[in-house]
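Why this split exists: single-chain examples teach little about how molecules sit against one another. For that reason, every record in the complexes split bundles all components of an assembly together and asks for one structure covering all of them. Below is a record exactly as it appears in the raw files.
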Amino acid sequence: MIAQLAVEIPYWGQSLLRVVGGLVAVLLPAGTIVYLFLFKMMSFMQSRLGPMEAGPFGSMQLFAEVGKWLQKEDIVPENADARIYKIAPIIVLVSTFLLVVVIPFGPDAWFTNFSAGVFYALAIGSVSVIGILVAGWSSANKYSLLGGLRAAGQLIAYELPMVLAVVGVVIQAGSMNLQDIVMAQNTGEIFGWSGIGFPFVLTQFVGFLIFMIAVQAELTQAPFDMPIAESELVSGYMTEYSGFRFLMFFIGEFATAGVFALIASVLFLGGWGIPFSWFGWETIDQVDNWMNIAGPLIMFTKMMVLTGIIMWVRFSYPRFREDQLQRFAWKVLIPLSLANIAVTAIVKVVV
Amino acid sequence: MTMLSERQQLSYIASQAADARLNVELETEGMTLNIGPQHPATHGTLRIIARLDGEQVIWAEPSAGYMHRGYEKLTEVRTFPQVTSLINRIDWLGSFANEVPFILAAEKLMEIEAPPRAQHIRTILFELSRIANVGLFLGDLGVQMGAITPVFLAFRDREYVLNLIEGATGGRFHPNFDRIGGLKDDLPQGWIDETRQVMKKLRGFCDEIEDLLFGNEIFQSRTRGIGVIPADVARQYGLSGANLRASGVDWDLRRDQSLPMAWDKVDFKVWTHPDGDSWARCWVRLQEVRESTKIVDQLLDTMPAGPVMAKVPRIIKVPEGEAWVSTENPLGEMGYYVVSKGDLGPFRVKIRSASFNNISITPWVLKGVYVPDIITILASLYFILGDIDR
C-alpha cells in the first residue's frame, strides 16, 4: 500500500517516518491532554483559572513543567535496587510506545499492519504492570510497595474484562486486524442504510462501556487510582521517584490514556475512517490519499472526546477501596462481558 | 450492646469476628507503617503507627505532640486580654469559636455579662466560624477519598465567610475580637445584608456538596458501615460534637447549657444519626452547616440595639476563683478551666479541646480496617492538629 503514495520512500525513510510518527502519536496527545484537560478543564470544573502565567492562557506551562522536572536531581534511595529502580519508568513508557505501533491512522498511515493487532495491543498493554510492580518493589519504601501490589492486583483484574469486551468486536468484525475492523465499520450498513457506516458502538455498547471502565482502571485514574492514592499512599509506586524518571511515569500515564482512547476509537467508533459511502469507496484500495492526512486528524478528534470523558470522570469521582474494586471487576464486569460475548456470538450466527 | 440498632450490632459483631480471625490465622510477618508525621492525609503532623497484615490493620495508635506549642503554660505569663490572641490559634479553622469559652469563663469569674447585642454578634461570629470550619471539612472529605473537585468548591465558598469575618473583626483567620465584657467593635455598615446573601450562597453550597459527594455511590460505599462507633463506646472515649451525635446521642451544648449567648433565642434542630459510621459523621456535619446558616439568619432578624461592651475596669483583674466553661465548638466540646489568683493573668488554664478526645478513639476504631479506610475514618472523625496538640 505504500506503493500507492505519490512519492516512493526508501526503506530507511519509512523507518524514520515511523519513529517520528510514533513519537508524535504518543507525545502530542499526552501534551494536549495534560494542558487541555488536566490544567484547563479541571480548573474550569473547579471554578478557578489554572495556569495563566506561562505563555498566553498558560499554554507554555507544559514546557515550563517539563523544564522543571528535567532540572531536578534524579534521586535513587539508598536501599533501593538501583538498576531495577532506574529501569522501571522506562518499561512503563516503552509499553506505551509499543502499543501505538498497531494503531492505523489512515489507509496507508500505519506503523505496522499486524494481522493479530487486537491480540498484540492487549498483550502489550499489560507490560506496564511489570514496570509498576518493579517500581513499587525496588523503591524500598512501604508506601511504594503497597502501591505496587495494589497496582498489580488491579491491573490484572481489569485486563480480563478489557479483553472480553473486545472479543465482541472481534466476533462482529470477523478479524483481529485493526485495519480490517476500521474497514468493517466504515463499509458496514445498518438495515441497508450506509449513511453513517456501522460503528460498533451501536451494537457493542455494553462492550464499549466495559472497555472504557477497564481503561480507566488500567490507567489508574480516579475512581480507580488506589495504586497512587495520594491521600493514603502518598504517591504509591511513584513516591520515591523524582526528576525525569517521575516525568516518564507522568508522560506514560497520560500518553497511555491517549493511546487507549485511540484503540477504543478504532474498535468502537470507526477509527480513522469516515463512512465510505459518502465518497463511493468500497475497498481500502479505493480510499483517496488525502485520508492519510485527514485520518490522523479524525483519530485525534475522537481520541480527545474519549480522553475528555476519562478525565471528566477522574475529576469528579472519589476512589474505590481495593476490595470494592476487585468485587466490581469480578462480580459485575466479567459476567457482563461474558454475557455480551454470548449474545454477540448468537446474533452473529443467527443474522 | 442493648442500645444498638440491628445494623450497628451486626457491624460490631463483624469487627469482633475480624479480631478473632486474625488471632487464629497463621502468624505471618506483619509490617509497621508510619502514617505521618508528614503525610498528606493528616493535614498537619499527626503520626499514626499502624501494624499491618497485608492491608489490614491489626493495631494502630495515634502519636500526638509533634505540634505541641505549650499554650496552657503560655497563658500563665499573659494577662487575661492577651490570652485571646494566643488561644484563637488552637483550632485555626474556626478561630473565633476558641475565644468564646475562655472569655465566658473570665466573665463568669468577674460576674459580669456582655450586653445582649454583643451576645448576638458573638453567636453569629461563632456560627460563622463553624461554617468556615465544617465547610472546609466537607470539601476535604472528597480529597481524602480521591475526589479533587469538592475541595475547591469548599475553598471558594468558604472565602465568602472569611470575608464576612474579616469585615466584622479585621482578621480572616485570627480575629482576636472578643473582649471580656463584650466585643471590640460593633458591626460595620451593610454587614447584615451581606451576611444574608452569603448564607443563601452557603445553603447552595451544601446542596452542591450533597449532590456531588454525598449522592455518589462510591462515596457511600466507602463510608457506609465503615468505622462504626456505637453510642456507649463513643461516650466512654469522651467523643463530643458531631462525632457523638452521629452515634445517635442527642447531645448539643448549645441547647443543653444555659450560657450568656444567643442560642436560646433561636430555633434550631440538633441532628443525630443512628448509624455511627463514617457516613453518619459526614452527614451530621453537613446538616450542621445548614442549621448554622439558619441560626445566623434568625439572629440577624432579631438583632437587638444597644452597646456591645459592658462596663469593665480599664485594667482587668479577675477575682480569685475557678471557673469551667465549655461550648459546642465546630469540632466538639471545647472548654477552659480557668484558675485565677486575683492577678492580671490566669494562674492556670486547662484547655479541653475536642480533637484530642476525638482521635483518642482511633486505636479502637481502626482495628481490623483496611488502609484506605484509615483515611476515611480519620477524615470523618475530623481533627485539626492545632486542636490536638495545643
